[in-house]
Amino acid sequence: MRRALLLCAALLAAWSAPASAQALGERLAACAACHGAGGAPAPLPNSPTLAGQPALFIENQLVMIREGLRDVPAMKGLLDGVSDADLAAMAKHFAGQPLKPQPGPRDAARFARGEQVANGNRCASCHLPNYAGREQMPRLAGQREDYLLHSMRQFLSGQATGRDTIMAASLRGLSDADLQAMAHYFAQLPP
Questions:
Q1: pTM of the predicted model, to two decimals?
Q2: Where are the domains of the chain?
Q3: Which CATH architecture has domain 108-188?
Q4: Signal peptide position in this chain (predicted)?
């Protein structure tokens, strides 16, 4: 873990060179330190897989992070000076990459509970029935289980600064076991 973080820090230091001095390819290579080559699979715990996410969703998140509206401590300053055009190109790149889910073994009971909770909360009404996401709603199917759980816990605890506030309301009243079951269910779904 420590080695991965050091590698990530070194690559991110390279990232922080002036925007004009970096080619898009160099920026994408730096992303791989935390999100995996081609945006999947993400090698670090609680890091999202970017491959196969809707381009508009990725682009919006990158803009929010660059502008300091979405708080992602590991990415602070990394997008300073990056143009809108470069952010759009990065988003388009990751959206076009094949998702390579690595969900681990399925727990049938937890999967079934996750499906039940997701259906009860009508998650598909925004994320689509196959949970592939659309426009500004992220793909949930095939996403890292630990990242999904981490994100849902952030929404519930009010720590998802700069993210869709409707998610906190959507998850209100769910237990941590419910969140774990939904994270397991979504991670197990095929892309």
A1: 0.85
A2: 108-188
A3: Orthogonal Bundle (1.10)
A4: 1-21
